[in-house]
Design goal:
alpha+beta; 5-stranded mixed β-sheet; 31% strand; globular
Length: 281
């Protein structure tokens, strides 16, 4: 099942994508796509609906973040061996965690704004895992049962802010619009193995990143388990699980985003994002 939220920012309605790729309205069945309805019983009630009987949304509706009210937006750094190497960083012994401010989260096709003073804004395609049920002290073997589904995340990063302004990486990760998420939340039953997904990111039609989640240093299950030993994971929390090689920082010379650039991101089974880069007003 592919769950979405559609409409103008701040007024999104719940929906789903039917088997023919059409957007259907879910407003008569749920108030919103939020953490409180991501448990299996609630998802099963939606799966039981006849999608063809739901109102069809005509036109090109804007898609918002597929989950509302995200509590924590967690990101894992250097989780692909070849990306760590291109960044000149040692292979981590444990998942590297940083947070992205919730004010950075934006829809999958919303513009990405280059912040004032930025010289080094960069792209990062990532697999996002959305928590469906509360997880605390869970093992890797049971971790995926706490995941409601998956989505695409673009962990847009300002490298100078991230590396040279002292403190946590969060400074370079949390600029407004630096967290495009979606287009859909694809439920776990449609992605039986999150460690076998091809992923690609292009800028202006040129392929920059290409990888597969099987080359992660820490699997999604290991990440969920590890984080749950440190703090409680709540329904609706998002974990962005790291990026493969091909980021602008790793190029020689480095290449960064500028106004007018267009990023396009695709992960098997999870759809496509497309963002135009603009200067922050």
């Amino acid at each position: 099942m592919k769950l979405v939220r559609y409409g103008i920012s701040g007024e999104e309605k719940p929906g789903l994508i039917d088997g023919n790729g059409a957007l259907r309205d879910l407003s008569s069945h749920v108030a919103d796509i939020s953490g409180s309805m991501l448990d299996e019983a609630s998802l099963d009630r939606l799966r039981a609906l006849d999608a063809s009987s739901l109102p069809k949304v005509e036109g090109d509706a804007r898609l918002g973040v597929p989950v509302s009210g995200i509590g924590k937006y967690m990101c894992i750094g250097l989780n692909y061996r070849d990306h760590a190497e291109e960044a000149g960083m040692p292979i981590p012994d444990h998942p590297i965690l940083f947070m992205k401010a919730n004010s950075a989260i934006s829809g999958p096709d919303d513009p990405v704004s280059i912040p004032r003073g930025s010289t080094s804004s960069d792209w990062e395609i990532e697999l996002g895992a959305v928590i469906g049920t509360t997880a605390k002290y869970v093992s890797a073997a049971e971790a995926l049962s706490h995941v409601a589904g998956y989505c695409i995340c673009n962990d847009v990063s300002e490298r100078h802010f991230q590396i040279h302004l002292s403190g946590n990486w969060t400074k370079g990760k949390s600029c407004d619009t630096f967290g495009p998420t979606g287009p859909w939340l694809v439920t776990r039953d449609e992605i039986p193995d999150p460690q076998s997904l091809d992923m690609q990111l292009g800028v202006n039609g040129e392929r920059m990143q290409e990888g597969n989640t099987r080359t992660m240093i820490f699997t999604v299950a290991e990440i969920v388990s590890h984080l749950s030993q440190l703090f409680t994971l709540h329904p609706g929390d998002v974990i962005s699980t790291g990026t493969p090689p091909g980021v602008g920082m790793g190029m020689k010379p480095p290449r960064y985003l500028k106004a007018g650039d267009v990023m396009e991101l695709t992960i098997d089974g999870l759809g496509t994002q497309r963002q135009k880069v603009v200067e922050d007003a």
